[in-house]
């Protein structure tokens, strides 16, 4: 359902060219849980951004559910992002001036879902992450772990096929990290494809498949290789 | 984004929102009063004089030599004017046509009962040729008989007969004929019998020189009194050149003891009547333009600032699947809410300014709902154009920036 052929991404500034991704070939099946590891600056975020249609790429083809996204316009890309992909970021990225309820609601409005259906989905999603009782609260009133759970609820309310998480536990202490990880794993077991970038080998071991990026090059690795290469 | 989300965001930036609302309210106040005043001025402009504005001249002169034989002067002047090429006829006029100003005593009644309503009224004394010079068309009755004209110095006599306009006749007597009825001029109720009714002529009907429309009547009187003014009405051929004005002035110029103040088409006199007011309307239009530019720039600056503070939020919206258009649209909606609040406030201020101008500056102005609707649409358009610039910037925020900055 996700297939990349020879995808490359180059950042050009006045002084240098950075080959953030080189000739990525990858195929991911529905329902997989993939952990992406690799040293800092190796291209993990770039890979996730491209997979999540947040950034364009220079070369190659990328098929999402059989559709080549290389030449789609902004409107179509936004729509695919909204409908098929759920994001979870290291920095949570909640809108601080909106309540938890409203934060979860925003992407549903962009999709044009009816008010009654929105209400049902928001309540279900916040219930799932254990924050239903606090939906009138604002992000600043919550702990980091709770904020990340709201972000997960926001991603899940859209019923995405893919969940993309960029170091979702990077800003959390280990207890909260484990709780968030448990939640993500539950979601994956319920059928959602999960691609997660992480520094944490212990968390990476929970994945069904491990991928490593080194200098923009992507390789499948076994669990035993994790300890040796992680930075 | 739904309205409630936008409201939440507005409430977090109260001071920016308040500044935008205030700017819009003040602009609306100025622009709507400009519209009111311009509209009232235009309405005045469009009142038909029902005169051949380029075929009738107003001639005003002043006799400063008190020993002048006025009747002889008038006779000589009329002969001289009628010799000018292009002139058809000249007649003595007791008062200036069009520019005649009304005093508080200018009223007409239909009886002598103390409680009767009056009509605001201006009347003109003309000689035998006056009716033709004006091009009067009788609807009912007759013209004056030669024997009815009274001429002379200050006189306590009055002709006792008059012609009134069709509108005045309707206003006083409704559907029944005004012919043979008595009408009473001014508070002294000087009786005149109506012998003719003419089809609306002269600016009188509906003209609002002192903020009040007035009716007109004509009496067969050539009374120069002890006033120094000796005025004429002149009918000229259609399409005559402007030179006729100079020629008439030259014809009168040589008489000693008298000066010629003005020779002009009544169309020019009519224009002058409204000049002052259109100047006011133009001044207001200028202020409006400045207000709109200042507000538009203010909105550009304030919204740019507000957008720069919310750059991260816009990136999040993009990452969550908002298209560029949706991000722009959410900012335009936000602005529309502010415009709406500003409009409500602005309309309140508009009415206050309207009453202030009416009572303190005595301008002519009129509150019209369609004008307010127009101002509302105009304000929204201007502010939306202004928001468009920073909104476009906001939409350029890369959705990837939310993953790069954690
Ligand atoms: N917008 C950008 N402009 C220029 N270079 C960039 C940009 N984003 C990332 N890079 C570079 O691309 C490389 C990969 O970055 P990134 O994908 O963020 O790495 P990781 O997430 O693995 O730490 C790095 O060298 C980084 O400096
Ligand atoms: Mg990264």
Automatic annotation (TrEMBL), chain A:
It holds the Pfam family ABC_tran. Keywords: ATP-binding, Nucleotide-binding, Transport. SUPFAM superfamilies: P-loop containing nucleoside triphosphate hydrolases. One of its GO terms (cellular component) is transmembrane transporter complex. Residues 2-231 form the ABC transporter domain. It comes from the Bacteria. GO terms for molecular function: ATP binding; ATP hydrolysis activity; transmembrane transporter activity. Gene3D superfamilies: P-loop containing nucleotide triphosphate hydrolases. Belongs to the ABC transporter superfamily. Macrolide exporter (TC 3.A.1.122) family. This is Putative ABC transport system ATP-binding protein. It comes from Pseudoalteromonas peptidolytica F12-50-A1.
From TrEMBL, chain B:
Residues 287-399 form the ABC3 transporter permease C-terminal domain. Residues 24-249 form the MacB-like periplasmic core domain. It comes from the Bacteria. GO terms for cellular component: plasma membrane. It is a multi-pass membrane protein. One of its GO terms (molecular function) is transmembrane transporter activity. Keywords: Cell membrane, Membrane, Transmembrane, Transmembrane helix. InterPro entries: ABC3_permease_C, MacB_PCD, Macrolide_Exporter_MacB. Its main location: membrane. The chain crosses the membrane at residues 16-42, 280-305, 337-357, 369-389. Pfam families: FtsX, MacB_PCD. It is found in: Cell membrane. Belongs to the ABC-4 integral membrane protein family. This is Putative ABC transport system permease protein. It comes from Pseudoalteromonas peptidolytica F12-50-A1.
């Amino acid at each position: 359902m996700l297939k990349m052929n020879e995808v490359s991404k180059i950042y050009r500034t006045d002084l240098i060219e950075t080959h953030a991704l080189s000739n990525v070939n990858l195929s991911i099946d529905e329902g997989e849980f993939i952990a992406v590891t690799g040293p800092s600056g190796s291209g993990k975020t770039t890979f996730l951004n491209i997979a999540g249609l947040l950034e364009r790429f220079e070369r190659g083809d990328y098929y999402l559910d059989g559709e080549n996204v290389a030449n789609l316009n902004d409107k179509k890309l936004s729509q695919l992002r909204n409908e098929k992909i759920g994001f979870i970021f290291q920095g949570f990225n909640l809108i601080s001036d909106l309540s938890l309820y409203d934060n979860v609601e925003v992407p549903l409005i962009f999709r044009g879902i009816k008010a009654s259906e929105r209400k049902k989905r928001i309540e279900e999603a916040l219930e799932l992450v254990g924050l239903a009782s606090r939906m009138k609260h604002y992000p600043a009133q919550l702990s980091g772990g709770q904020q990340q759970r709201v972000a997960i609820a926001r991603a899940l309310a859209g019923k995405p096929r893919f969940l993309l998480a960029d170091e979702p536990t990077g800003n959390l202490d280990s207890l909260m990290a484990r709780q968030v990880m448990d939640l993500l794993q539950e979601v994956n077991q319920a059928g959602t494809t999960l691609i997660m970038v992480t520094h944490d080998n212990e968390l990476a071991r929970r994945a069904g498949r491990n991928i490593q990026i080194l200098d923009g090059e992507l390789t499948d690795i076994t669990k035993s290789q994790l300890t040796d290469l992680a930075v | 984004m739904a309205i409630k989300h936008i409201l939440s965001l507005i409430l977090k930036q109260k001071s920016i929102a308040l500044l935008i609302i205030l700017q819009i309210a003040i602009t609306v106040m100025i622009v709507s009063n400009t519209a009111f005043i311009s509209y009232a001025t235009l309405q005045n402009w469009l009142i038909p004089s029902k005169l051949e504005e380029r075929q009738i001249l107003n001639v005003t002169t002043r006799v400063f030599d008190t020993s002048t034989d006025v009747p002889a002067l008038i006779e000589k002047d009329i002969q001289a004017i009628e010799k000018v090429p292009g002139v058809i006829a000249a007649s003595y006029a007791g008062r200036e046509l069009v520019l005649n100003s009304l005093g508080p005593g200018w009223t007409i009644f239909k009886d002598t009962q103390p409680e009767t309503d009056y009509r605001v009224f201006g009347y003109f004394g003309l000689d035998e040729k006056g009716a033709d010079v004006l091009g009067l068309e009788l609807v009912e009755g007759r013209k004056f008989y030669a024997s009815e004209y009274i001429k002379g110095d200050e006189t306590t006599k009055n002709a006792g007969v008059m012609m009134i306009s069709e509108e005045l006749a309707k206003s006083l007597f409704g559907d029944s004929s005004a012919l043979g009825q008595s009408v009473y001029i001014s508070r002294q109720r000087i009786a005149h019998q109506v012998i003719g009714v003419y089809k609306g002529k002269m600016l009188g009907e509906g003209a609002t020189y002192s903020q009040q429309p007035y009716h007109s009547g004509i009496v067969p009187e050539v009374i120069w009194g002890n006033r120094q003014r000796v005025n004429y009405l002149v009918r000229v051929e259609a399409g005559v050149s402007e030179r006729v004005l100079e020629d008439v002035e030259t014809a009168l110029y040589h008489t000693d003891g008298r000066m010629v103040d003005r020779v002009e088409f009544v169309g020019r006199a009519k224009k002058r009547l409204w000049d002052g007011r259109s100047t006011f309307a133009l001044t207001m239009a200028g202020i409006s333009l400045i207000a709109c530019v200042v507000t538009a720039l203010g909105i550009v600056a304030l919204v740019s600032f507000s957008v720069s503070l919310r750059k991260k939020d816009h990136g999040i919206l993009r990452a969550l699947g908002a298209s560029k258009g949706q991000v722009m649209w959410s900012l335009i909606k936000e602005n529309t809410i502010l415009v709406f609040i500003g409009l409500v406030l602005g309309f309140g201020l508009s009415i206050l300014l309207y009453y202030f101008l009416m009572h303190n500056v005595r301008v002519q102005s009129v509150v019209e709902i369609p004008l307010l609707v127009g101002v509302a649409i105009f304000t929204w358009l201007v502010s939306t154009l202004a928001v468009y610039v920073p909104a476009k910037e906001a939409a350029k925020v890369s959705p990837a920036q939310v993953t790069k900055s954690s």
